[in-house]
């Protein structure tokens, strides 16, 4: 069974108490300096900073008996940072032009009667730094003592948690090592002149105590493993260390510490006696000498806190507005010199990286190595083009779009058939009544009123026919180039590229060695590049922290000498940059030779040629896909626009037929009245007729002497129009869709890049023009030239639009297909 730690109840720690100090007024001398060298207004602006400094100094002088250690530590750190700000803005020295009424006094922490005073703020800062460092436990050589005590606390916690003997032994051994390092520092100058002998005795005994504690814990683990010989040797080593420490250490150590040593020594001797008996009776193993034993394992659980981070005053804003003119000018000059150095070195680094990139590209590295490993890559621009094609469906998606063209063409064709059937039905009914009533059927024949409409339908039919031919050519192009474009459906697209493989036959079979050496050189080149990036960051960081303003404000010599001294800080990093670039140049030459050998073995030139051929095939496939895709899109746009135009004409045709049907019924009634001898006469009017205005109540009646005729060119576009009367055209109408009396509609685009003068009409979606006489009413019984038109001969129906010869140029004269 392991006994509790020998130091459980005797954890005696050493501490450095705060040093004494004298009362010091910083407020008045600094304010006077600001007023004399700057202005009263500047002093007023900095009043808050002066008061803050005054309060910090007062709190430091008050002592920390009532404060917690952490609060006192924070106070000393803030005061130190404030002194750094004062140092950079106020020259404190005996000189007449400086702040010469401030004197800093320092007392020894151990020998309090010893003190030193100087009119130098550097003394105040350095002493305050040391004092703050002691409070934080990280001051110079005393750091090891504080680390030892911190590790000791961890050890006690480990024992309390019941950790294994092996773990406890490692942590205990590290405690002893820290104490041994502290003892070495306290035993020599200058620390041996300041620390009391009792401190040295304490540290020496602690070093021996925790070494012996590690031996004790380690021997427990050895006993469980039945390694009796080494257990005996470790126990003897621990007992010997304690005996030697008690004999050689100075007097003055705490009694609790001596009691802990005696207790541990008793435990070691008891276990040693037991182990020796077991070895003599059972194991009979030879005990090795202590000098042959391996060092005990150790493990550190604590580490020092970097003081440069804790006490970094670079962000301190106190008195930031105070910069003397002379110092500002000198600082500007130094900054220019420094910027020139940074800029020059940064350019060298960037040029080095660019040179490496260009040289590797010339050697086709590392692409050729990646190709050998199967990691093929496309040029970025080509890769993006392929991804764009695949996102929109790729060549496999063209079939679906071709089917859309067919569906839209069918819909347009069906619309034209419906219109034609509607017009033929109306014309047939008109012809039947004309045959039935003879000369009494005096209204114009349908063919004379639907000429413009028939022209439009013929144009649409011609457009559809030509579009069908264009669609057929697109389908043929898809079939003919499907093999070319199929490469775009490969996923990943890199699988379509040729691969770089080992030669089928080799004389010396050194391919792997050549590749391995080349890859190793490339890794070295990458390491040099990473080093350059680190050097550039280091340059920027050095410049960021390079603040020589305090030195400029306190300097009494030549600024140029100071500049040269400060600039020399960058000499080492500039030399590293030069060495890096030189190493890269030599490495690139070596890589060139290795790559030549690699290219010869793997026939790299033939691979490059086949790879470029693959690139060109992909580029050609993309170009052909885009060409076909563009033509399909133009076709889809054409059919949609044509459908809109045909729909408008269909509505106009419906309006025409509805109006003709209404007039037909009225005329039938009129003819029947004539035939039965009935006539409706109005004594106050001479004529009568029928007309239906475009707006207002339907069938509104009034007398009119004007002759009106029905013309489909003036039909409204509403879905439920009032039946208007026919009006003859005022001027000859040229053939063409855009010049009919219906007004202009939007022209459907010609099939796929047809020229402006091509066969496709130009419908404009605008409301139809309305004649000034449109909408005059008429009544049954009206007799006028409208009914006196010469009758049309039976059977003179116009041919359907699909039988009219197309007046448009053949397909080879228009659009994308004109080769």
How would you describe this structure to a colleague?
Residues 679-689, 701-720 have a biased composition (Polar residues). Residues 721-731, 747-766, 791-810 have a biased composition (Pro residues). InterPro entries: ALIX_V_dom (IPR025304), BRO1_dom (IPR004328), BRO1_sf (IPR038499). It is found in: Cytoplasm; Endosome. The protein is an all-alpha fold. It has helices spanning 27-37, 40-45, 47-62, 69-89, 121-136, 142-160, 165-186, 197-224, 228-248, 255-283, 307-310, 325-362, 367-372, 380-391, 398-437, 446-449, 451-480, 482-485, 511-545, 549-554, 559-567, 571-601, 604-676, and strands at residues 104-107, 115-118. The protein is 59% helix and 1% strand. α9 (228-248) runs antiparallel to α10. The longest helix has 73 residues, at 604-676.
């Amino acid at each position: 069974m392991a006994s509790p730690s020998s130091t459980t109840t005797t954890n005696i720690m050493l501490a450095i108490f705060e040093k004494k100090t004298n009362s010091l007024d910083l407020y008045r001398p600094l304010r006077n300096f600001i007023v004399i060298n700057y202005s009263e207004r500047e002093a007023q602006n900095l009043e808050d900073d002066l008061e803050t400094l005054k309060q910090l100094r007062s709190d430091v002088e008050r002592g920390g008996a009532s404060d917690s250690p952490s609060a006192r530590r924070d106070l000393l750190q803030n005061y130190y940072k404030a002194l750094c700000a004062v140092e950079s803005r106020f020259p404190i020295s005996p000189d007449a032009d400086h702040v010469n009424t401030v004197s800093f006094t320092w007392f020894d922490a151990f020998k309090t009667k010893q003190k030193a005073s100087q009119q130098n703020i550097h003394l105040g800062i350095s002493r305050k730094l040391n004092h703050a460092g002691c409070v934080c436990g990280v001051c110079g050589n005393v750091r090891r003592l504080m680390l030892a005590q911190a590790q000791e606390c961890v050890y006690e916690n480990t024992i309390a948690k019941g950790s294994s003997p092996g773990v406890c032994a490692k942590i205990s051994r590290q405690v002893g090592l820290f104490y041994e390092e502290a003892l070495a520092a306290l035993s020599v100058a200058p620390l041996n002149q300041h620390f009391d002998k009792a401190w040295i005795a304490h540290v020496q005994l602690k070093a021996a105590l925790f070494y012996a504690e590690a031996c004790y814990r380690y021997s427990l683990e050895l006993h469980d493993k039945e390694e009796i010989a080494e257990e005996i040797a470790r126990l003897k080593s621990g007992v010997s260390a304690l005996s030697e420490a008690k004999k050689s250490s100075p007097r003055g150590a705490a009694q609790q510490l001596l009691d802990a040593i005696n207790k541990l020594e008793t435990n070691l001797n008891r276990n040693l006696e037991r182990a020796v008996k077991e070895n003599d009776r059972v194991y009979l193993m030879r005990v090795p000498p202590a000098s042959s034993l391996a060092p005990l394992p150790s493990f550190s659980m604590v580490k020092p806190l970097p003081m440069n981070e804790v006490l970094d005053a670079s962000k301190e804003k106190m008195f930031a507005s105070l910069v003397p003119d002379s110092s500002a000018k000198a600082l500007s000059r130094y900054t220019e010199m420094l910027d020139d150095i940074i800029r020059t070195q940064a350019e060298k680094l960037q040029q080095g990286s660019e040179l490496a990139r260009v040289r590797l590209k010339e050697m086709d590295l590392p692409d050729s190595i990646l190709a050998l490993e199967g990691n093929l890559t496309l040029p970025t621009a080509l890769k993006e083009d392929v991804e764009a094609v695949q996102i929109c469906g790729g060549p496999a998606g063209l079939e679906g779009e071709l089917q859309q063209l067919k569906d839209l063409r069918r819909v347009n064709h069906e619309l034209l058939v419906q219109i034609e059937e509607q017009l033929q039905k109306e014309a047939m009914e008109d012809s039947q009544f004309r045959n039935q009533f003879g000369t009494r059927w005096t209204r114009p024949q349908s063919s004379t009123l639907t000429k413009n409409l028939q022209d439009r339908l013929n144009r649409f039919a011609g457009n559809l026919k030509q579009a069908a031919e264009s669609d057929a050519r697109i389908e043929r192009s898809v079939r003919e180039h499907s093999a070319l474009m199929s490469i775009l459906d490969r996923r990943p697209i890199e699988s379509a590229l040729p691969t770089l493989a080992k030669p089928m036959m080799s004389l010396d079979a050194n391919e792997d060695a050549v590749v391995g050496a080349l890859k190793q050189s490339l890794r070295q080149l990458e390491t040099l590049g990473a080093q350059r990036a680190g050097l550039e960051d280091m340059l920027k960081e050095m410049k960021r922290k390079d603040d020589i303003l305090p030195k400029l404000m306190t300097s009494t010599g030549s600024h140029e000498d100071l500049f040269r001294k400060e600039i020399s800080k960058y000499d080492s990093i500039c030399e590293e940059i030069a060495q890096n670039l030189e190493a890269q140049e030599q490495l690139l030459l070596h890589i060139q030779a290795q790559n030549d050998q690699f290219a010869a073995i793997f026939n790299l030139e033939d691979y490059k040629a086949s790879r470029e051929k693959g690139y060109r095939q992909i580029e050609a496939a993309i170009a052909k896909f885009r060409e076909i895709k563009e033509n399909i899109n133009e076709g889809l746009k054409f059919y949609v626009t044509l459908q809109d135009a045909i729909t408008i004409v269909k509505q106009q045709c419906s309006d025409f037929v509805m109006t003709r049907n209404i007039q037909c019924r009225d005329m039938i009634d009129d003819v029947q009245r004539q035939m039965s001898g009935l006539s409706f006469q109005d004594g106050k009017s001479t004529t009568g007729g029928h007309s239906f205005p475009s707006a207002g109540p339907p069938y509104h009646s009034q007398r009119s002497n004007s002759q009106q005729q029905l013309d489909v060119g003036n039909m409204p576009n509403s879905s439920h129009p009032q039946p208007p009367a026919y009006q003859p055209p005022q001027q000859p109408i040229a053939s063409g869709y855009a010049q009919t009396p219906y007004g202009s509609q939007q022209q459907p685009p010609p099939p796929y890049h047809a020229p402006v003068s091509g066969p496709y009409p130009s419908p404009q979606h605008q409301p139809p023009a309305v004649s000034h006489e449109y909408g005059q009413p008429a009544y049954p019984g009206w007799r006028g030239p409208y009914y006196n038109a010469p009758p049309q001969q039976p059977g003179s129906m116009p041919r359907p639009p699909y039988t009219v010869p197309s007046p448009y140029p053949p397909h080879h004269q228009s659009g994308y297909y004109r080769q």
